[in-house]
């Protein structure tokens, strides 16, 4: 049996959708999901809300829903309905996703006028893995009570991040969002806090090949929050310590090791430099939880690499901890617009955050994060890992670092950890790392087996 045939056997149309289309005499054909399906034919449905009431919005997946244009068109400033409210609707019909069928939702409907330019459309069945292909002339009557409008931005019209000078890109973005003339120095313009002395001391220790346990212990013990964090991690069941941890030195020597403690200390100290934003996209993975999961997967992937091409485990782990640091910087530099980015992420789950940020700001969190790593004098490997983490084709200098982050994020997204569309990872990416895809999947599985422990550690990390 072919893979397509297997998918058709495994997936079936939910009864509520079959009955609805049958009652409306709409013909359809089942189409299993696969990467070659044209996003210009895939109908994306999102339920929005405001004080007036809900609104179902339909557009194809080659578009981004621009909430500013929608507000101009409707005179309403709308956001995605709360996940718990949407879940009530889905549970009522026994579905896990919202299909693009207005008759299923008791609310007005607005659709992007480009929707009906396709000869046929693909509608979600309400379950992942299967679409229903409906001819345009058969779908059009389903929109008889809906209104058309132009509120989407074609993804092809958004200029992607093509490299270049990140400092200049940030300057242009800041200029676009500030009324006063930008100052000459970028660091003064965006008012970055300076690195604390504890961070500088940790960085000096990290670059010292002859660092001693006493020196690390001294730095950790001068920061009570950091000392408590190290003790807590070493005592956690994740590291399965056989005896009680009585001191920071105990934690370093007997459980965590020098590299891990330095990396944890550096990441925690940097995290306190820029605080977590109060706003965030609905249903998103918490910041530190995402960081801990990613770092744990990267550690396993690094150890699975052939010894002769294996990079420094401590540095790759740190790249995982700090991979999304640009998110914090984005909230710090553009506070009034960060909320708007969050709302767009909620209604455009099929679009990468980088494209949304480029569309709204002209800059991505990866560009900002990489620039900050360089501005703060972090190792080049970290800046490159942050900058090219979403480019599976990157083969430049120190490519192993962003390649590892790319694989970790992609595999975690395929397991429901993280935000954004789940694009398939190319075989060439695994080949460059020397880690077979099956072995990489096993690494992720092992990490997620410790999910409860990792969440506890991430919660402690966020509170420190």
UniProtKB/TrEMBL annotation:
It comes from the Bacteria. PROSITE patterns: HDOD. Residues 192-392 form the HDOD domain. Gene3D superfamilies: Hypothetical protein af1432, YbaK/aminoacyl-tRNA synthetase-associated domain. Coiled coil: none annotated. PANTHER family: PTHR33525, RIBONUCLEASE Y (PTHR33525:SF3). This is HDOD domain-containing protein. It comes from Pseudomonas bubulae. The lineage of its organism: Bacteria, Pseudomonadati, Pseudomonadota, Gammaproteobacteria, Pseudomonadales.
């Amino acid at each position: 049996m072919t893979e397509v045939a297997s998918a058709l056997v495994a997936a079936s149309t939910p009864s509520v959708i079959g009955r609805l289309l049958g009652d409306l005499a709409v013909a359809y054909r089942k189409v299993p999901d696969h990467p070659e399906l044209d996003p210009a034919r895939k109908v994306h449905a999102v339920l929005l809300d405001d004080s007036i009431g809900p609104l179902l919005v339909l557009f194809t997946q080659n578009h981004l829903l621009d909430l500013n244009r929608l507000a101009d068109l409707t005179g309403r400033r709308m956001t995605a309905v709360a996940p718990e409210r949407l879940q009530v609707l889905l549970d009522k019909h026994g579905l896990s996703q919202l299909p693009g069928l207005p008759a299923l939702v008791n609310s007005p409907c607005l659709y992007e006028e480009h929707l009906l330019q396709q000869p046929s459309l693909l509608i979600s069945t309400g379950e992942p893995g299967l679409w229903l292909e409906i001819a345009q002339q058969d779908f059009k009557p389903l929109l008889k009570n809906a209104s058309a409008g132009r509120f989407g931005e074609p993804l092809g019209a958004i200029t992607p991040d093509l490299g270049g000078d990140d400092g200049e890109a940030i300057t242009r973005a800041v200029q676009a969002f500030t009324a006063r003339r930008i100052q000459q120095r970028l660091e003064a313009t965006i008012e970055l806090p300076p690195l604390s002395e504890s961070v500088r001391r940790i960085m000096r220790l990290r670059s010292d090949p002859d660092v001693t346990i006493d020196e690390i212990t001294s730095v950790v013990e001068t920061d009570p929050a950091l000392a408590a964090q190290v003790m807590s991690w070493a005592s956690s069941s994740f590291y399965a310590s056989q005896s009680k941890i009585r001191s920071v030195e105990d934690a370093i020597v007997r459980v965590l090791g020098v590299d891990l403690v330095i990396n944890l200390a550096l990441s925690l100290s940097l995290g306190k430099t820029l605080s977590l934003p109060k706003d965030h996209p609905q249903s998103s993975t918490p910041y530190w939880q995402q960081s801990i999961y990613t770092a744990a997967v990267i550690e396993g992937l690094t150890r699975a690499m052939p010894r002769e091409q294996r990079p420094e485990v401590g540095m790759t782990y740190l790249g995982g901890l700090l991979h999304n640091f640009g998110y914090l910087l984005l909230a710090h530099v553009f506070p009034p617009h960060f909320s708007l980015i969050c709302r767009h992420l909620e209604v455009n789950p099929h679009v990468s955050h980088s494209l949304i940020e480029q569309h709204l700001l002209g800059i991505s969190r990866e560009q900002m994060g990489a620039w900050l790593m360089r501005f703060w004098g972090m190792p080049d490997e970290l800046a490159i890992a942050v900058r090219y983490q979403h480019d599976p084709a990157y083969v430049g200098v120190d490519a192993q670092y962003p390649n590892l982050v790319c694989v970790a994020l992609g595999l975690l997204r395929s397991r429901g950890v993280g935000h954004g569309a789940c694009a398939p990872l190319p075989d060439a990416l695994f080949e460059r790392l020397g880690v077979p895809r099956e072995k990489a999947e096993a690494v992720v599985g092992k990490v997620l087996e410790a999910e409860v422990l990792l969440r506890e550690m991430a919660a402690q990390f966020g509170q420190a």
